[in-house]
Amino acid sequence: MLEVKSLTVSIRNKNGKIYPLVKNLSYKLNEGETLAIVGESGCGKTMQAMAIMGLLPPNIHVTQGQILFNNKNILQLSPKERREINGKEIALVFQDALTALNPVITIRQHLLEVFKARTNLTLNEAENKIKELLEQVELPQSILSSYPHQISGGQRQRVMLALALTLNPKLLIADEPTTALDENTQEQILNLIKKLQKAYKMAVIFITHDLILAKEIADRIFVLYSGTKVEESLAKELFSNPLHPYTYGLFKSIITKDTPKGIPLFEIHGSPRGRSRFYGCPFKDRCKKSSRVCYKFVPSLEELRPRHYCACFWAKSIDSQRRQND
Length: 326
Ligand SMILES: Nc1ncnc2c1ncn2[C@@H]1O[C@H](COP(=O)(O)OP(=O)(O)O)[C@@H](O)[C@H]1O
Ligand code: SF4
Ligand SMILES: [Mg+2]
Prior knowledge:
Blueprint: E1 2-12, E2 18-29, E3 34-38, H1 45-53, E4 60-69, E5 72-73, H2 79-88, E6 90-94, H3 97-100, H4 107-118, H5 123-136, H6 153-165, E7 171-175, H7 183-200, E8 203-208, H8 211-217, E9 220-225, E10 228-234, H9 235-240, H10 245-252, H11 292-296, E11 302-305, E12 308-310, H12 313-325
Parallel strand pairs: 3-8, 3-9, 6-7, 7-8
Antiparallel strand pairs: 1-2, 1-4, 4-5, 9-10, 10-12, 11-12
The protein binds adenosine-5'-diphosphate (ADP), iron/sulfur cluster and magnesium ion.
């Protein structure tokens, strides 16, 4: 259904220089599938989603690649054709529901607006649809007369989901939809997305910095580092067999109920920014396994185990040694 092919998204800085934020990214998504994209803040998760939505900021552009949606390169569509697809075919929910919603109109008006602008439904039909949508996102009908700031963060995220579902999209992109919420509400929203995905038979791209959430929701996970895909596999396989040192680091920094208090958490030192990300392996300056080759060459993404891909010289040699010993 969706195929992102060699996508590069770049920024032009004040001096006119162009830097890639997402580099040569490729992935596929099948109908009804859930893919999680995981990586720490600033690694390009949102920018690649904005490229799909055609909503990149003015100084940021797709400089290479294709985005095929049902075999059509949506990067070549006119703005009018794009608007047709957004909402009807692909919908987006993101972290900051409060800024996405208009503070001076009620929830009812938000939902009615979409039906008025995008469908031929009569007012009565739209009202009935809204009633149904609220039931699906498990919100009381009384919320319709509220303004966005009068409801809780979890309720706002449910409203965002209702808005995203108004036109029956085939693909939902959820960009950190639970990040601003407390743990209980997070869990509820995650379960709701799972339920809605089944009911609407949608594919979902779930973007998160949290591997545990990714595992809870996704069939497949890929790990993005500094705009580059460094590892991809089925969710279960990634948890039983992480291969890339960065993925190791993400696992080690996971806080669970069992993490003892007072013990320093594991940290991946440094940041993904800085000039050295432009040559060799992007992770080399932070990697405990780096060697000379990592400074000279860029590791390519290779299938090291069945349907498990990793871009790392060390992982490749360790994994082949392991298999020889098996
Ligand atoms: N509007 C913008 N102008 C300039 N740089 C931006 C803008 N938005 C994002 N960036 C930069 O692009 C990179 C990727 O950002 P983003 O996709 O938002 O990361 P993530 O969603 O993974 O946290 C970051 O280094 C960020 O600083
Ligand atoms: S290629 Fe080298 S620097 Fe990059 S992750 Fe692997 S070992 Fe570390
Ligand atoms: Mg983001």
